[in-house]
Backbone:
């Protein structure tokens, strides 16, 4: 998705239109890029950020309920800190059939983000009770931290999802890191990256769906598009029985 800078209504409308197209192609789990509704709208954070109950998430929840689907993405959250001052977070969310299954506040802001966003302090997977799936959600820069994906995997994640605004010229790093996180954790990995440009960077897209062998099963180019692939969660178990990576770990020495 090409995110229009600071244009929330247009971006939400576009996301819903693309999601509807994906649903018509059989998709049940929809993944949107990082801060899909606004981009990194640093000059207007107060106006574009949202407080609970989060109007944008409510709109997506209505869509999710209507289509009985799962939607994953992130928005800019405005949350009062312990001193009564506004604190902004990159709030990841997972909606299942109209209900918020869980949220995750980005724990590793990058670059300019450090001047605007507070850091989340919890890394836990999100359980989807209706679909009996556990999602490990990480956001952009966190793809570079294998500890994040490993913690999510050890905590029971069935699918790793990375939502991002990975900029040029880092396409090769994006692809290599996304494949590595799938291979080393023996998990399917959905890695959704934006395309287009904002005042600070340009973006290459390159979204990926990777199986738990680390093989790319679907990939996007530089333009807006929808990629779809069927995920077989039993494949995780088969691979882990063939290569018992988690049984062979030595956490006592590292």
Residues:
């Amino acid at each position: 998705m090409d995110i229009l800078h600071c244009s929330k209504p247009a971006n939400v409308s576009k996301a819903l239109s693309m999601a509807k197209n994906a649903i018509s192609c059989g998709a049940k789990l929809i993944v949107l890029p990082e801060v899909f509704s606004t981009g990194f709208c640093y000059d207007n954070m107060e106006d574009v950020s949202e407080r609970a109950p989060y109007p944008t998430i409510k709109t997506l929840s209505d869509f999710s309920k209507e289509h009985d689907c799962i939607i994953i993405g992130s928005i800019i959250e405005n949350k009062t800190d312990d001193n009564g001052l506004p604190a902004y977070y990159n709030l990841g969310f997972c909606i299942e059939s109209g209900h918020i299954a869980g949220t995750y506040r980005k724990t590793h802001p990058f670059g300019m983000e450090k001047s605007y966003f507070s850091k989340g302090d919890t890394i836990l997977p999100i359980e989807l009770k209706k679909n009996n799936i556990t999602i490990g959600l990480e956001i952009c820069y966190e793809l570079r931290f294998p500890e994040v994906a490993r913690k999510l995997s050890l905590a029971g994640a069935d699918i790793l999802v990375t939502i991002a605004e990975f900029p040029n010229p880092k396409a090769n790093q994006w692809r290599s890191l996304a494949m590595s996180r799938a291979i080393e954790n023996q998990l399917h990995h959905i890695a959704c990256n934006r395309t287009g440009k904002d005042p600070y960077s340009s973006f290459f897209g390159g979204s990926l769906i990777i199986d738990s062998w680390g093989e790319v099963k679907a990939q996007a180019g530089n333009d807006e598009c929808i990629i779809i692939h069927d995920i077989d969660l039993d494949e995780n178990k088969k691979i882990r029985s063939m290569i018992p990576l988690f049984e062979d770990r030595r956490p006592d020495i590292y």
About this structure: The helical segments are 8-24, 45-48, 55-67, 146-154, 171-185, 234-242.
